[in-house]
Amino acid sequence: xxxxxxxxxxxxxxxxxxxxxxxxxxxxxxxxxxxxxxxxxxxxxxxxxxxxxxxxxxxxxxxxxxxxxxxxxxxxxxxxxxxxxxxxxxxxxxxxxxxxxxxxxxxxxxxxxxxxxxxxxxxxxxxxxxxxxxxxxxxxxxxxxxxxxxxxxxxxxxxxxxxxxxxxxxxxxxxxxxxxxxxxxxxxxxxxxxxxxxxxxxxxxxxxxxxxxxxxx
Length: 217
Hints:
transferase, glycosyltransferase activity, 46% helix, Glycosyl transferase family 1 domain-containing protein, Glyco_trans_1
């Protein structure tokens, strides 16, 4: 994606992440967030910002996914988007009454429990260059659905995630991932494989190799 927009020779080094070595069992994780282990949970974990995060798309899609809960976790900034986020939260609790939780900011030591409770995650951003939140989800080996943006499409080709286009497509794919265990397991394995390919030690080596080649030239 980036290379196509540069008019000179370039080297693209991926954003790194730290693969999680031990994942929390899903039943225990769900109980830790107060949800019956039998209920499938769709989640968003990351900064809860303005409209560019696309959370309305996720909320609308979840209205069509019966029998599943939605968990939204992440901090917010106080500022111009504050009222927008308050209205969004209020609307969510109405249209998804009894099956939505907003957890707010999550401490690092609690993140494995939150990720562990989720059957799949959704990142519906309207635009992005890269997503640290998505990489964190992949590092926890989670099945992820993302909006069809260039940086995400690249990862989809590698089997790390699945993209969607619009509310209808998202709701259909959420249902499919929740119902099709084989598909979900495939996405989880793809997530782990991708996270392993961009773990920080490998990314550091690529930086060193690049800098040495530049100094040597």
